[in-house]
Amino acid sequence: MLTVDFDRLGIGPGTRVIDVGCGAGRHAFEAYRRGADVVAFDRDEPALAEVETMFAAMAAEGEAPEGARATTVAGDALALPYPEASFDCVIASEILEHVPEDERAIAELVRVTRPGGTVAVTVPRWLPERVCWLLSDAYHQVEGGHVRIYRGDELRTKLRAAGLRPVAGEHAHALHSPYWWLKCAVGTDNDDHPLVKAYHRVLVWDLLHAPWPTRLAERVLDPVLGKSLAVYSVKDPPAPSTRERGRNAAEGGEVAVAAD
Q1: For residue 110, what are the β-bridge partners?
Q2: How many domains would you assign to the chain?
Q3: pLDDT per residue over 12-50, tens digit each?
Q4: pLDDT per position as a tens digit, 114-132
Q5: Cα separation of 35 and 88, whole Å?
Q6: Which of 49, 82, 122, 151 can bridge 93 by disulfide, Cβ–Cβ 3.0-4.6 Å?
């Protein structure tokens, strides 16, 4: 289940991508399928071992174009082990709500993005998330759980402050909001509840078959009930200094004189 719209990001052969907080690897796998040079980055080493196994299986089955590369790296999102401008695209899906120092994490995402590169950030949307918090303390008061609920304007403000220019946003996974409300109402660990099991079967069926009725329903409901907010941003190149602008103007004048 993808939360990021890859068509917006223009990821293709040779694109350098890092999926920060990759989890089970769903976005890293899609970047690999599109031919990217992708790093799946997370602090959960057992999860990364499974992602590495999947990368190998994809390569063996020819699911990635020739020349695509994929690797896993364990580490801390607050101190990414890469120099500045290392990646064309940075993905951070559903991780910032877990990080107490979110502004520091955002700064790292921006630092490793090249000028002109893109950053895709997704977080739980305010309204569906607020309902979950009201229904269940266990939903978020767990080790590694959610530490904040973002409003869209708040997230965009933090992205701008770190040097990004948000250019698009959307909501996703409307059909998942009622599922999580139901789980919160009956107990987040009560996976055997008949309503939870039935709803889960529907979500799995939808994921595997993508029938048009549920796809249409989700498109209609996403603006209202979408579980996730996705914000797409660009890291603009730094503005030229006064000295550089003067030099460029002088060089332009010299070219004009030569042309005469």
Answers
A1: none
A2: 1
A3: 999 999 999 999 999 999 999 999 999 999 999 999 999
A4: 999 999 999 999 999 999 9
A5: 13
A6: 122
The answer to whether the CB of 5 falls within 8 A of the CB of 34 is no
The reply to whether 154 falls in a domain is yes
Residue 193 belongs to some domain of the structure:
no
Are 110 and 84 in contact by the 8 Å Cβ rule? The answer is: no
Beta bridge mates, 74: 42
The answer to pTM > 0.85 is: yes
CA 82 – CA 85 distance, rounded (Å): 9
Location of structure tokens 């999860």: 47
Which CATH number do you get for residue 83?
A: 3.40.50.150
Question: Would you say residue 203 lies in a domain?
Answer: no
Q: Would you say residue 205 lies in a domain? A: no
Task: Tell me the average pLDDT of the chain.
Answer: 92
Chain position carrying tokens 């660990």: 189
Q: Which residues pair with 91 in a beta bridge?
A: 19, 120
Amino acid 142: pLDDT: 87
Domain that holds residue 50: 6-125+142-172+226-238
Cα 120 from Cα 158, distance rounded (Å): 14
Residue type, 150: Y
